[in-house]
Amino acid sequence: MVLLVACSAGTGGAPAPAGPLLPTTNDALPQMDVATFSTLLAQQRGTPVVVNIWASWCPPCKAEAPALAAAAARYGDRVRFIGVDTQDNRSGGADFINRYGLPYPSVSDPTNAIAVSFGLYSPPATLFFDADGTLVRTVPGQISADDLERGLRDIAATGR
Hints:
Layout: H1 34-42, E1 49-54, H2 59-75, E2 80-86, H3 90-100, E3 106-109, H4 113-117, E4 125-129, E5 135-140, H5 145-156
Parallel strand pairs: 1-2, 2-3
Antiparallel strand pairs: 1-4, 4-5
Helix pairs in contact: 2-5
């Protein structure tokens, strides 16, 4: 089983050690395959994680980005956010991160293998993992403000 996680340092600082695979800058966009991403998620154990799968060319991704950025800023001391830029190029991904002010790091998955490993075939999608690394909720498609808040409350309550 592969786990996807989203990460945010937020305004309150990182909730726990991030592990060596977590990008140190928001727009580094290191390329990852399923196995490497699974290891990255495993390194986040002890911290609830939100993984958002997005692409710079995706209109629903653009529409949900401001709400995700705001949520990452609000929950940054309790939840880690990680983005997965899929089926995209690095310059498009970096431009998207900067345009929407995403305060959390993203990784690059040009082949969409990470999303497919979770049974998701096109962006956007958001996955919520509890502090034990268990996938609690998957929201395919553009996430609503209510679904985002509900998922965050569910996993933040389990954070340490």
